[in-house]
Amino acid sequence: MFLVFSLLGGVVLLFIIAPLAAMFLQVSPGVFAETAADKEVRGSIMLTLWTSMAATAVFAIAAVPLAYLLARAQFPLKRFVNGTIDLPIVIPHSAAGIALLGVFSRDTIAGKAFGALGIEFVGGYAGIMAAMAFVSLPFLINASRDGFAAVPQRYENVARNLGASPIRTFFTISVPLASRSIVSGLVLMFARGMSEFGAVIIIAYHPMITPVLIFERFGAFGLKYARPVSVVFISVCLVFFIVLRSISGEKRKFFQ
Amino acid sequence: MFLVFSLLGGVVLLFIIAPLAAMFLQVSPGVFAETAADKEVRGSIMLTLWTSMAATAVFAIAAVPLAYLLARAQFPLKRFVNGTIDLPIVIPHSAAGIALLGVFSRDTIAGKAFGALGIEFVGGYAGIMAAMAFVSLPFLINASRDGFAAVPQRYENVARNLGASPIRTFFTISVPLASRSIVSGLVLMFARGMSEFGAVIIIAYHPMITPVLIFERFGAFGLKYARPVSVVFISVCLVFFIVLRSISGEKRKFFQ
Amino acid sequence: MTPPDSGEIFVDGIRHESNAAKGPQISIVYQDQALFPHMTVWQNIEYGLHGRVKAKPERSARVRALARELQIEQLLGRKPGTLSGGESQRVALARALAVRPKILMLDEPLSSLDIRARAGIRSILRELNRSGITMIHVTHDYEEAISLASRIAVMERGTIVQSGNPREIFMCPKSEFVARFTGIKNFYEGSLVRTKHGAATTGTFLTGPLTMSVAVDARPGNGFIAIRSEDVTLSLAKPESSARNIFEGTIVDIIPTGNGVEIAIDTGIDIVARVTGQSCSEMNLECGKKVWVQFKATAARFIPAASPP
Amino acid sequence: MTPPDSGEIFVDGIRHESNAAKGPQISIVYQDQALFPHMTVWQNIEYGLHGRVKAKPERSARVRALARELQIEQLLGRKPGTLSGGESQRVALARALAVRPKILMLDEPLSSLDIRARAGIRSILRELNRSGITMIHVTHDYEEAISLASRIAVMERGTIVQSGNPREIFMCPKSEFVARFTGIKNFYEGSLVRTKHGAATTGTFLTGPLTMSVAVDARPGNGFIAIRSEDVTLSLAKPESSARNIFEGTIVDIIPTGNGVEIAIDTGIDIVARVTGQSCSEMNLECGKKVWVQFKATAARFIPAASPP
After folding, report:
1. What is the pLDDT of residues A142-157, one digit of tens each?
2. Cβ within 8 Å, pair B234-A73
3. Three-class SS of residue A117?
4. Whether residue D194 sits in one domain with residue D129
């Protein structure tokens, strides 16, 4: 049985690895270096990295407490809230872009209000971050919620019984014990934000994040010119992902 | 504390709900009905549904056994395999499309081999399915693996001790006990496949799945014409998602 | 914590607040200790002192004093994951005691420990108790209860069915549940009839097919008879003895235990006798053998039913 | 199952295969029963019969016969989640027995059950054992072990430290660990010196500051002394008695137990005496009080050390 299962599993792995491996092999080191030096490519990668990171950081402030509530508190419509959080995973990315554009475009109330504060969404950094956050928030919230839920409530009870306030219990017991899941959720949200294309292209074609740049080069010049950018960007993504994962993986696991 | 947390959580929920709610409100029932009757829209929605469903079904045959191996077996490079499975989540969708195009385009070995069998990837159904599967496989594999891992191995040991073969144990013990997670993984993979845009648009602009259609209408006619299609498609997605979720949710949970 | 549906807790007449920082402190020690795994032993013990004791030197002094008292000074720098069960339980006790509780609530504190660690923790608990702290000790182990408690309340299905000091519980179990809990093997329900034989008043207890003589002064009525298995003796021939209760029966089960062997005899009802291993083998006792059981009327304790059934 | 690093299992001289479908069957019953939660009781019991018994009517007959034997006929249609602990354990036994194992391996089968259910399962196990099936029963409860086993092996840290019949284990514990396990409170390491007094040969045992008389015929050397706490008597004044071992000491602990009270006396080494609750209160025993302990030379059992330390 294990042989059959291994063969089937091998097919799946091949399906994932082969396209990526082929793409990397088709880009010569020379072309790679040249592309990596391309000002437009570098600029777009930097933009993609910092917008995704900023979106993750800004939304974490509200998303982690929400995750804690979902793990611990009982309230009406909890199922509805849990479902809502999963919505962005199910909604087609281009449709998500359309929805965000409907709220944040210059002629809406929200768009005007933020415009008065000097924050432009359409074709602006704020728009990119909103699009990234919209599609990637579920990853952070779900991972954090599961992390909090895995912390035996007994520890929080003991802390409360010893006289700690709810907020002290949250910061000294719940967050440290769920830290692994929270960090992993942050990494996932950051990674998912970087990879977003559909929602961003609709709300902000310019300034151009790398996924959009790849699409543009493909449309304008064809596969051969889109490939090196893809390879360089994927490399950057992987380096970031692996480094972040290994940092967060170092923390010991308290529970399984 | 709970008040502050609730307020923060409310902001997050508002950020997710407001764009969607606004979009639905901006489409009048008349326009909705008209769009739902549009032949091009209907055709693309049907296409999106069945390609995603087919991709999920085809890959499940190999992905579920792989998930079982990852949950139970110890083998070298297991970390590497686990990492590989998460790759599609991290890789930008447009770059994933470029990678798949590199392997399956008409002038590659794989493309020629499948072409000889009458399977066209570029601009074909197979291409759409491959793109959908590539980005959505991690959801099925991860959910199934976690499901299998949550089945106490003791049950499998007991079955083996009673003389059941590994394959009988798999089908009579492991799969039924993990069925909730597997079904939830299938639903997620299906939903994620339907929502894919970036990878599909690069490998197969035509035949046009709905996310691509939304993008095209937006590019050609603007927000006003993209919005009704988005609303109709999201409605279909939600109906499917809710129905599938409630079916799978009916099964009792054996473990937590 | 699951919030209670209703009810209030008063300690020395003062209402206990669910927020432990106010009002009298009830510290809870859990069966699995629940030490914070990401903190050192020192940080665990000190945890409850933040906010209570402002000065850091005083906090340190308290931690150190407790560590000395519970003999865990050498563990202060370690993480809970590296401790043995007994060490963890000491740390958990130190953490609970650090906040100087009025009441220490112990939830099966010995059940997750091995035999050796149990003895250590038990003697610590006994000393703490002598030092004046009130302890509420939840356990399902009768030996543990009587070895530590001055008052015992027996709960069955969420309700206190009997409470009293260990002796009362042991001598007068009010139900079969409590009797089994205290290790009494022979416990029968039936009714007491009063009979007068000259000067002495004896009771006759009817249970199933048997009629037993019971030396009681209680009023006739329904109730229970409890007979300790040590008080039941066996003989192969019909004994000539002053014992008032002599029944013939068949051995149905032989159960070796720590001190002796328990023999179950079917005399119409099952009666359990405890004999020494030596007599068991000398008498060649085995299942199916006919024997005579006897016990004195004074060995059969009558416990009146609380209310008419 | 964790595959073993090395080793083979032989049953009646036939090698046991890891694939239970071949070779002699060893059925395992787990502490938590591990009934398949998605199957009915019937399906659980029948599970091991597929492949072994082709004919469906025969399978049904076997399930029904076992259900009758274990008194779970009325449960056959139910799911395991709805059963009590005792019922679950009966079903688990039925499932394990359905495949007609040569050996039944029981992993703490009683520990997750309440007192009542324990008695039921224990008597089922005893009957099964009489019916001829070999059982390997893993437990950390000494009473459970001696009440069911014909041979006991005591494991300490993964190694069998002593094996034998219950009487051997109880009478001659080979280490302090085994002694504590059997409930012996007084167990001391030391060395035996031989002395001759006229005709009688007595040993003198040196442990810590004490010198004890021991009635042995063993060769001098290192070893242990075990004294049951029942054999130690207390008196307030120095006793005039034939007992050879009389020591003065201070009471350091008083532990009420199920049958009597255990008094720990510091005589240089701690000696535990068991007295009745009555004499404890009559003698006004309390911590710090000076008392005399005595025990007969015949009560002190000498157990030679297995090898020179």
Report:
1. 999 999 999 999 899 8
2. no
3. coil
4. no
Yes or no: say if D290 and D161 are a contact pair by the CB < 8 Å rule: no
Check whether A256 has a pLDDT greater than 50.
no
Tokens 């607040």 belong to residue? C17
Q: Tell whether D140 and D195 lie within a shared domain.
A: no
The β-bridge relationship of strands C152-156 and C270-275 is unpaired
**pLDDT, tens digit (0-9, with 9 covering 90-100), for B181-196:** 999 899 989 999 999 9
Residue ranges of chain C whose CB lies within 8 Å of a chain D CB: 114-116, 122-123, 126, 140, 142-143, 146-147, 166-167, 180-183, 253, 255-259, 277
The residue-averaged pLDDT of C144-153 equals 82
Pair D213, D300: CB distance under 8 Å: yes
Mean pLDDT over all residues of chain B?
89
Chain B hits for A108, CB-CB cut-off 8 Å, are: 22
Among residues C1, B200, C14, C116, which one has the least CA distance to residue A156?
C1
CATH number at residue D97: 3.40.50.300
Asked whether residue C141 falls in the same domain as residue C221, the answer is no
Q: Which residues pair with D104 in a beta bridge?
A: D27, D135
For residue C187, what are the β-bridge partners? C226
Structure ipTM:
0.68
Torsion of CA C34, C36, C41, C46, to 10 degrees: -100
Instruction: State both tokens at A59.
Output: 């939304």
Q: Is residue D169 part of a domain?
A: no
> How deeply is D194 buried, as exposed, middle or buried, from its count of CB atoms within 10 A (0-12, 13-18, 19+)?
middle
Phi first, then psi, for residue A110 (nearest 5°) are -60, -45
Same domain for C138 and C20, yes or no, is yes
Which pLDDT value is given to residue A228? 93
- Tell me if B23 and A69 make a contact (CB, 8 A cut-off): no
Would residue C113 count as lying in a domain?
yes
Which residue, among A72, A74, A161, A175, would best test binding to C if mutated, counting the most C CBs under 10 Å from its CB?
A: A161
Structural domain contains residue D278: yes
Domains and CATH numbers, chain B: 32-72+79-255 (1.10.3720.10)
Range of the domain at C39: 10-150
Looking up tokens 């034997």, which residue turns up? D69
Residue C163 forms part of a structural domain: no
Give partners of D (≥3 CB pairs < 8 A): B, C
User: What pLDDT is attached to residue B43?
Assistant: 94
What SS3 class is residue D201?
Answer: strand
- Residues of chain D with Cβ-Cβ distance to C181 below 8 Å are 115
> Which of A2, A6, A12 should we substitute to test contact with B (largest number of B Cβ atoms within 10 Å)?
A12
Q: How far away is chain D from the Cα of C135, in angstroms, using its nearest Cα?
A: 17
Gap between the Cα atoms of A52 and A58, Å rounded: 10
Q: Nearest CA to B102 among D79, A26, D199, D230?
A: A26
